[in-house]
Write a structure and sequence with these properties.
Elements lengths: L2 E6 L8 E6 L7 E11 L1 H7 L16 E8 L11 E4 L2 E3 L5 H4 L10 E2 L11 E5 L4 E2 L6 H4 L5 H11 L7 E5 L5 H11 L2 E6 L5 H6 L4 E4 L3 H6 L4 E6 L7 H6 L1 E9 L11 H5 L4 E4 L5 H13 L6 E5 L3 H9 L6 E5 L4
Parallel strand pairs: 10-11, 10-13, 11-12, 13-14, 14-15, 16-17
Antiparallel strand pairs: 1-2, 3-4, 3-8, 3-17, 4-5, 5-9, 6-7
Helix pairs in contact: 4-5
Length: 338
C-alpha cells in the first residue's frame, strides 16, 4: 500500500492536519504495519514544537505504535503477515557498526528515529526495519501496550543496565508518564520503592502503583529523613531539580540516573560524588533485545501503563490534553481512519 493517510504538523506548534502520503515500494528489509493503537508521548509534543532542534517538517509524530503486519519485504527475517508487533522510538539502525553488532542498536550513531524524517505512528500504517518491529507477547493488553515501547523501556532499561538488585532501595522522582511505569517495574523487580512527587494528590496513586513510601519532593525536611538510604534514584522529569539534595539521598556506591530530557545543564559538585563513591548517569530507550525482554517482563507481571484513550481523529484534542498537563498518565490514540 503506497497511499497512506497520516496526521502531520507543517511547522512548530501547528495543529496536525490529515494528509495523504505516497510511500512507494516497500524496502526488502522492512515490514509494513497496520496501526491499531499509538501512544502519545511528551516526546511527540517536543518534536512537534522542535524543542530539541532536530524536527523535520512536515512531521508525522507517533512512536509507540502497535498493530498487525500487513506486508513484509523479501529480506525480512522471523516475522510474518498477520503477526502483531510494536514499533517504538527507532525504526531502523545501520546493522554493521560496533553498537549494532554488539546488540546495542539503540546507540547506533545513524539509527533512524521513527519520527525524524520518517513517518510515525499517527497514520494508517507505519514501516520499520524488521529488527525494530518487536513481537508482542500474547497476554499483553494491546490497547494499553503502546507506551511501553518508549516510556516503558526508558524506565526499564536502567534496572538491567546498572544491575539493580531486588534487595536494593530505589527512588523514582516524578510520578507522571514515565515515573508511574518506573514504580511498577521497580516494585515487580523486587525493590523497596520510594516515590518523590510534588503533588500530594498523587500520593495514594503512587502507593497503589507500587511505591512503599512517598516523599513530598517540595519538602526539604522529608528529604533529609531519607539521606543515605537509596541505592538507585531514577529521575523521570525534565525540569531542573536540587541535584545536590538528590545525591545526598544515596547510599555509598549509589547512583543518580536520569531519563527525563532535562534541557538545562546539571550542576554537580565532584566532592558530592567522591565522598561515598556515587555516580550520575543517563540513558535513552533500549535495544530490540531489551524491548523484547521488557515486554515479556511486563506480560509476566501484568504491568500496563495507566492510559486515557482518544480516537485518532481527535488527535489535536489529545495534544492539548497533554500540553495542559492533564494526562493521567499516558494517552493512547485509537485508529479510526475510514
Amino acid at each position: 500500500m503506497s497511499q497512506v493517510k497520516a496526521w502531520a504538523g507543517q511547522g512548530a506548534h501547528d495543529k496536525l492536519e490529515l494528509i495523504t502520503l505516497d510511500w512507494g515500494v516497500l524496502d526488502p528489509e522492512q515490514v509494513e504495519v497496520a496501526v491499531e493503537h499509538c501512544g502519545l508521548c511528551h516526546s511527540d509534543l517536543s518534536m512537534l514544537n522542535n524543542d530539541w532542534g532536530i524536527s523535520r517538517y512536515p512531521i508525522v509524530p507517533g512512536h509507540e505504535a502497535v498493530g498487525r503486519i500487513v506486508a513484509v519485504g523479501e529480506a525480512v527475517k522471523g516475522l510474518k503477515v498477520g503477526q502483531r508487533v510494536g514499533i517504538g522510538w527507532h525504526a531502523g539502525s545501520c546493522m554493521h557498526c560496533e553498537s549494532c553488532r554488539s546488540g546495542q542498536n539503540n546507540l547506533c550513531s545513524t539509527a533512524q528515529p521513527t519520527i525524524v524524517g520518517h513517518t510515525g505512528g499517527f497514520a494508517e500504517r507505519i514501516r520499520a526495519h524488521w529488527l525494530w518491529a518487536i513481537p508482542l507477547p500474547e497476554h499483553l493488553d494491546i490497547s494499553a501496550a503502546g507506551p511501553l515501547l518508549c516510556g516503558g523501556i526508558t524506565v526499564f532499561s536502567p534496572l538491567q543496565l546498572h544491575d539493580v538488585k531486588p534487595t536494593d532501595r530505589v527512588g523514582v522522582v516524578g510520578i507522571g508518564g514515565l515515573g508511574h511505569m518506573g514504580l511498577k517495574f521497580a516494585r515487580a523487580w523486587g525493590c523497596e520503592v520510594t516515590a518523590f512527587t510534588s503533588h500530594p494528590s498523587k500520593a495514594a496513586e503512587a502507593l497503589a502503583m507500587g511505591a512503599h513510601h512517598v516523599v513530598a519532593s517540595n519538602d526539604s525536611s522529608a528529604w533529609q529523613k531519607i539521606n543515605g538510604s537509596l541505592d538507585f534514584l531514577l529521575v523521570t522529569v525534565n525540569v531542573p531539580l536540587d541535584w545536590a539534595a538528590l545525591i545526598k539521598t544515596l547510599k555509598p556506591n549509589g547512583r543518580l540516573h536520569i531519563v527525563g530530557a532535562v534541557l538545562e545543564p546539571i550542576p554537580v559538585a565532584v566532592f558530592d560524588l567522591l565522598i561515598g563513591q556515587k555516580s550520575v548517569s543517563a540513558s535513552p530507550t533500549g535495544s530490540p533485545v531489551a524491548l523484547s525482554t521488557m515486554l515479556d517482563f511486563a506480560a509476566r507481571h501484568q504491568i500496563t501503563p495507566q492510559v486515557e484513550h482518544f480516537p485518532m481523529s481527535r488527535i489535536n484534542d489529545a495534544f492539548e490534553h497533554l500540553r495542559a498537563g492533564q494526562a493521567r498518565y499516558r494517552i493512547v490514540l485509537d485508529n479510526d481512519f475510514v
